[in-house]
Amino acid sequence: MQNAFARLTLGLLWCLQWLPLAGQVALGRGLGALLLRFGRSRRRIAQRNLELCFPDQTAAEREALLREHFACLGRSLLERGLLWYASPARLKRLIQVEGDIGLAARSEQPVMWLVPHFMALDVAGVATQLFQGQPVGSIYQAQSNPVFDAAMRRGRLRFGLGEVFERHEQGALPLVRAIRKRRVAFFNLPDMDFGRKETVFAPFFGIPASTLLAPSKMARGLKMTVQPVVAEMLPGGQGWRVRFLDPWDHWPTDDPAADAATMNAWIESEIRRLPAQYLWVHRRFKTRPEGQPRLYGGG
Question: Residue 290 and residue 66: Cα distance in Å, rounded?
Answer without folding.
Answer: 30
